[in-house]
Amino acid sequence: xxxxxxxxxxxxxxxxxxxxxxxxxxxxxxxxxxxxxxxxxxxxxxxxxxxxxxxxxxxxxxxxxxxxxxxxxxxxxxxxxxxxxxxxxxxxxxxxxxxxxxxxxxxxxxxxxxxxxxxxxxxxxxxxxxxxxxxxxxxxxxxxxxxxxxxxxxxxxxxxxxxxxxxxxxxxxxxxxxxxxxxxxxxxxxxxxxxxxxxxxxxxxxxxxxxxxxxxxxxxxxxxxxxxxxxxxxxxxxxxxxxxxxxxxxxxxxxxxxxxxxxxxxxxxxxxxxxxxxxxxxxxxxxxxxxxxxxxxxxxxxxxxxxxxxxxxxxxxxxxxxxxxxxxxxxxxxxxxxxxxxxxxxxxxxxxxxxxxxxxxxxxxxxxxxxxxxxxxxxxxxxxxxxxxxxxxxxxxxxxxxxxxxxxxxxxxxxxxxxxxxxxxxxxxxxxxxxxxxxxxxxxxxxxxxxxxxxxxxxxxxxxxxxxxxxxxxxxxxxxxxxxxxxxxxxxxxx
Length: 495
Description:
Layout: E1 8-14, E2 21-27, E3 33-39, E4 68-74, E5 77-83, E6 96-107, E7 112-115, E8 131-137, E9 145-152, E10 155-159, E11 166-170, E12 174-184, E13 187-193, H1 222-225, E14 246-256, E15 259-268, E16 280-291, E17 294-305, E18 308-321, E19 325-338, E20 341-355, E21 359-368, E22 384-396, E23 402-416, H2 417-422, E24 428-439, E25 443-455, E26 465-467, E27 473-475, E28 481-492
Antiparallel strand pairs: 1-2, 1-6, 2-3, 4-5, 6-7, 6-8, 9-12, 10-11, 12-13, 13-14, 14-15, 15-16, 16-17, 17-18, 18-19, 19-20, 20-21, 21-22, 22-23, 23-24, 24-25, 25-28, 26-27
């Protein structure tokens, strides 16, 4: 998947022709592949310090499909070939159907993208501007059955003592396996027992720039990557890495009765339990299209660990109006029971975006209650409320030395959630001025001016103390606010 800096040809294949979701395939001039899925949810892929213009949403490259590709250099350019088996994708069950399709060429030396169908910037959706493969009939996925048995064994050796005999232990085999069955062309069942994930790549190292936020590590285990896009929910309320070492797991993903669905059930190993029991997980995600680019979704998650219980119920949606206006909303309630103590708390969010050719606007607000707990998802920082306003204006001139110039103003505020509800003061304030440009030949340059103020967070330093005069130990109370004034200069060259 690491061809982001290469010239490449990208294929977006929307087999359900819903203008919202597509399978993504990309090939560079030497046939090296990248693949994934694109779910358009109104999350822009650009903005900030080094972005000349706001762009379409980026696909999620977590998934891996089975397909073939070749590429070769020819005079004046390159050629690529792609072969995608029907068994590798899901599609409609009808005898006659139409698929959405778009082909995109990325030219690194110029920083430009060329699309097969005319695509305009003044639109809330990229996929809704795709072309169509019409008149498809007699499509057969064939029998889709994959069986992957595994047998693993570990032998450990150690000396019995100084100068003692070297002895070995262990060696008992562990048997497991994974199975996949394509029930219909658009519905797949996956099951696993005692899976072996030893071949999974290790996580990429990350830096913690803000100690108030937990680091997020994406899912990499093959069983959970299959159909991962079906569990996509706002605020990462579904994060399968919370299932540490599954003993048994099964899931159904795909479409049924016009509804996109993902259902997952799993039993985790006892090592992940507070009580020495077998933690049980259940997830159900349903999404239904309401027209091109619009949808409504529902989420239910549950985790049981002995007497402890955690349940989350949520609803979310997106409405696209006039092709350029996009409204999003989400809300969920979590009920958490730990050692008999019961807490119930909400999470919510709403947003609006205007995607014009030269003027763009984005407004959003969200909140996570201090007592909100999800044991099937990932919350980077609970107990905050946030509001964001961003306006940008772009000047475009085709063929000029300066192809685009974008000015952006971003106003961002963060509150402690309880202070926000009570109408008390803001904690963090940020005002950013960004100017980004794109020049002929793929060069980019930008400058940003940051005016920020960070309030003292007593939750981080509640267990910190300092030594005062005479050796007296005093609680650390910090300073009320820390101002920050900064600037950022960026320069980017063609890959």
